[in-house]
Every structure is written in C-alpha cells, then in structure tokens.
Amino acid sequence: MDELPDCGWIDSLPAGWIAGMVVRQRLRALIERRVVTGDLAPWLGDFGVEAYLECFGGTETEARDSIKLDDHLTAVFQRAILTGALSASSFDGHAFKALPKAAFVHLSVARNALQMGVLDLDPLWPDEWWPWSSKHWAVPKVEFETWMASQEPTRLDDLPADIALAYDGTVTPLTFREPSPRARVSLSEAVSWVAFGIALEPVQFEMALHWERLENGDLQAVQRKVAQAVAEIVAAGADSRIAFSGRHVASLWEKGATNDIIHPLKLEDYKAFTIGRDDLNYGEGLHRTYRAKNDSQSHSSERRDLFTEVKVSRDNLMLHFPRQSKVIPSADSGSPDSPIFWTDFDPEALPALRRLSDAAAHDEWWTWPEAIAWVGGRDHRNIASLRYWATEWSSNGDADVTLGAQHYMAAQWCTSARAAEDDLHHAIERGAVHTIGRTTRDGLASVLRKEVWRGGAVIYSDGAAQLVSAKNKLTAWAFDIAVHRADLVAAFPSPVDGERIAAICEADPTEDDGPADEKPFNDQQRRDWMEAQPMGSADPAHKIYKQHPRWCGTKLPEFRAEWKQVKGTRQGRPPNRKIDK
User: Fold this and answer.
1) Helix H segments across 35-168?
2) Inter-axis angle of helices 538-547 and 556-567, to 10 degrees?
3) How far apart are CA 245 and CA 263, in angstroms?
4) pLDDT by residue (tens digit) across 312-340?
5) Which helix (H) or strand (E) holds 495?
6) Three-state SS at 304
7) Which of 351, 443, 541, 546 would be 438's cystine partner, CB 3.0–4.6 Å?
8) Are the C-beta atoms of residues 444 and 428 closer than 8 Å to each other?
9) Is 218 helix (H, G, I), strand (E, B) or coil?
10) 450 near 457, Cβ under 8 Å?
11) Lowest-confidence segment of 190-194, 215-219, 409-413, 566-570 by average pLDDT
12) Do the Cβ atoms of 454 and 407 come closer than 8 Å?
C-alpha cells in the first residue's frame, strides 16, 4: 500500500487527490462528531436489519443506526456531487477520466463506491465509458478540504439530493447497439441483440440486469425475453442457419479445451443459457434465474458437460435477426413498438376517445401508467387511449395484465420510459406532485408524504400500483397509488396549447376521389386508396370503399388480405404481443 495517507488502496495515486474510500472515512467521522440527534435517513422508512445483524452482530438499534448513518453520509456526498460542490474522476493507475454527475445518480451505486473505493458505471453508457467502469476513483484534495470546512457536509435539508440535477445531457445511455464488428461475436451479444436491440458483452449484460436497466426494471419480463431470444438463436443454429463455436468441457472448472465448431445436432440438446456467461448447458431455457436482482438460483442439469466461450457468426446473426434502431418511430410507421395516436384509430372510435379525453382533463387523480404517459407525451389524448384499450385488456380478468399493458403502451410515448418515471419520482420527492395511497392493504386512501417515496419504487401487484422498497420489492409501503392530475400538469406542462389532431378527424370519410362516371379502380389505384386511409382496420374501410363511386367490386376477404399487405400491422391496436405482468 502507498504510504500517501490520502491514497486508500489505490497504487500510484498522485498527491493532490483523495481516494473515494478515504472520502467516506473522513466524512463519516465528521458527521459522527457534529450530528448527534434526529433521524439521519427518514427516507428509508421501515426496513429489515437481519442481514446486517447476521454479518456484523450487535443489537437491532445499533444496526439501524449504522445503516441510517451510512445512507445519510452517502446522500450528503451525492448532494455535493450533483450540486457541483465536489467533482470526481476515475483512475486506472496511469490516467484520470472526469466523471459526470450522472455516475453517482443511484444512491446504492454511490454507497458502494464510497465503501469499496471502486465505481461501477451504467452498463448502458456509450462504449467510451466502459474501460473506466469498475475502476478506483478520487476527488481533488483542495476541493474536498474546502467542502469539508464548510457547513454543507452536516446540512440536513435537501436529502436525498434532487436527482434531476444529474441529467445535464453529458451522457446519453444507449437505446441501440449492434454486435461488435467481428467475424464471430459472443453469445451474450447475440442474445441481448435479439432480445433488446442492445448488444452487450457478458459482464455488461449481467450488470444491466442488476441495475434494472432493461424492460423498465421488470426482471421477469427480462428473463422471458432472454429465454425466447436464446430459443430462437439456438434453433437457428440447430437448423444450420447460424454457425456456432465454443469449447466443450466436462465441467465448468475444466481448463484447456480447444475452440471448435459446435455441430448443429449438439444444439438440439445444449440450449440452456446463463446471463453473464457465454455458456450453453444441457437442457433449455435459463440455467440461472432471478427472483430479485440480487437473488438468483442456478438449476441443476442432467449432465455436467457444457459449451463455454460460445460465439456465433455475426453475418449469420444479422441476416436472420436484423433490427432497426429503437428510436421511437413515427406514428404512421406501423411498427408494433410505435406510439399510438388518434390518427391511427378508426373514425368510429373518435367520439368515445373525445369523451375519455375530456374526462381525463378534469379528473382529480390519475393512475401510475397514466402519469407516465403524461410525462412522456404531455397530451390528454394519450390518457384517453390508455383508457380506451383498458376495456379490451381487462376482458381477460387479470387487472395486473391490464396495468402492465397500459404501462407498455405509455412507454411508447416516452423518449425514455425509465427517464420519464425517474422525473416523475423526483417531482414527487420534491413535493411538486402529490400522491395518495392506502398505507395498509385494507385501509382508506390518504395523502402520502413526499418522504415516503425516497428509496421507493413502483410495481404492479394485486391489480394496483404499489409503492415498495427499492431494496426489497416484497416490502410494500403503500397500495393503490394515484397521482394528482393538476399537480402533474403544472410540473410537466404541455408544450402545445391547441389540438394536435388534424382535420382528418372531422373529415367526411365518404368523400369522392373523382367523378362518378370514372372507371372502377384498378389494382394499383385501389392500393393507393388504401394507403391514404386513416383508419386502422380493414372492415370499416371496406364499408367506405363500397360506397365509393369507383368501387371495383372487391369482396371483403380479398380486401382484408390486400389491406394487410398495404397497411402492415393493424394500427390503433394495443401492442400485438403477450403483455408481461
């Protein structure tokens, strides 16, 4: 260890810098000297201390005090970073890389960085940042000592810090990343590419799962998508459409096996994938599953042998699994992942949508998916669309599926659904947006204090949105969450004042395209007519077409088939996929 007292465990850290773990030690000592009364971390709410007692012993009171002190000093440091009072840099033993504020945006990440002296960066940050992840970090010594001499380290208000301060546009997370430009790419890259459109190496893939950076943090949805992607890729390999290579070993611990082509017949049996490894075990599905992000379970296999360091042909992969950029497409793209606007609906639906929109504009409370839809789109029509399709989704009798479907649909109006939900959380924690909920499962709804939301997350369970502990999602803090509409609209005002729906909503759909004595449409003219129609369904379009003076006599079955070819995915419909709970 370097004799420089500020270096912590960092070899070669030059003078003028203080290591991250030393920052924690000195800050903790200062807080313990100056702050002796009061709840140091009221945002934690109720939490268990069993794990702490099992590791460190002591009394339950001592454990709670220690945990709260640790969260308090982390929040104090995080506030200093986000307000610009302190800056930090990653250090690889030779050079420094200045870190953006967003590197410390997650309280748990900042806590681990202070405790371990190593900072993990968001696994979905651009490639230039990946070499600087999981490296030691430090702060300038003069800057730190000036801050420590002020009153800021022991100021108790504004904790946790306003996370919105971190989003200054310095770093934009990836929403699309093609596999590496190599002849053969890792199995992890291939699976994450097919499942999410973001090719990730094994370590990044597992970190993205632990960070809840995929599928808006829905862990079960992530695993379903991964299992489906693995099944599709391995099936393509078994059909000799994608070339696989890897090392066949007798057990996970065997070394020295040579790299070789994996015969397609082997892929009939070895198709069990492990997130975070490029392995294929005997069996199928996921060899390791997660009940929570830090609670995994490995499943036994009938055979111990497996294929490790599995790679696939990039050319084969891109040929059979092409994907487009995940930037939100235009409303008329016809993609199942495109946002739904009123111009996508049949004209017959517009009166009902207008009534729902008017009701939404005057309601006192909105559901959590409706609040996300507003933050992402700032349009009452989007709320109406959610309610319009809720009738169809609720017909299955599972309210969780309805909420999940609404959440999925709301996400399509957001440039980043995760960022929209974070913005909503921060507005609630600042007190700008009020919420209600039941503090007991059978209690009455009441206003929730903003402090209750700190350290919380929202999940869908028992047919309602629940506020739970972000650390332990089995611990519910409040039930049936609702968001105050007027507060939400004031905090996130709409950028437009007038109607966004074009005059097509009011137009006469039976208007003629030409004189009545013209010849019937030929095939191309009929297709052109279909392309120009705003409705999303073939049946009402056929009724309108039959009234047209140039109707060519096409019957409904033929019309439907041709309509599908011209229009693609039926528009105005909820996502054409199984909705994840």
Assistant:
1) 50-56, 60-83, 107-116, 141-148
2) 120
3) 8
4) 999 999 988 886 433 333 323 334 456 78
5) none
6) coil
7) 443
8) no
9) coil
10) no
11) 566-570
12) no
Is there a contact between 214 and 417 (Cβ–Cβ < 8 Å)?
no
The set of residues, in sequence order, having a beta carbon less than 8 Å from that of 402 and lying 6+ positions away, is 390, 393, 394, 396, 463
The terminus-to-terminus CA distance of the chain in angstroms comes to: 50
The pLDDT-based confidence of 46 (bands split at 50, 70, 90) is low
User: What is the rounded CA–CA span in Å between residue 535 and residue 509?
Assistant: 10
Higher pLDDT: 199 or 167? It is 199
Residue 573 has pLDDT above 80, yes or no: no
User: What is the C-alpha separation between 227 and 215, in angstroms, rounded?
Assistant: 14
Q: Are 154 and 67 in contact (CB under 8 A)?
A: no
Specify whether the CB–CB gap between 201 and 191 falls below 8 A. Answer: no
- How far apart, in whole angstroms, are the C-alpha atoms of residue 69 and residue 74? 9
Structure tokens at 81: 């970073």
CA distance 525 to 248: 59
Mean pLDDT of the chain: 81
Contact status, residue 161 vs residue 82, Cβ threshold 8 Å: yes
Q: Model confidence over 75-97: pLDDT tens digits?
A: 899 999 988 899 999 998 889 99
Closest CA relative to residue 401, chosen from 570, 196, 218, 226: 218
Rounded Cα distance between 32 and 24, Å, is: 12
The winner for highest mean pLDDT among 390-404, 434-448, 455-469 is 434-448
Strands 365-366 and 283-286: unpaired
262 close to 213: Cβ distance less than 8 angstroms: no
The pLDDT value given to residue 394: 62
What is the token pair recorded at 370? 């409706």
| pLDDT attached to residue 580 | 43
Query: Are 580 and 407 in contact, with CB atoms under 8 Å apart?
Result: no
> What is the Cβ-side half-sphere exposure of residue 415, based on CA atoms within 13 angstroms?
6
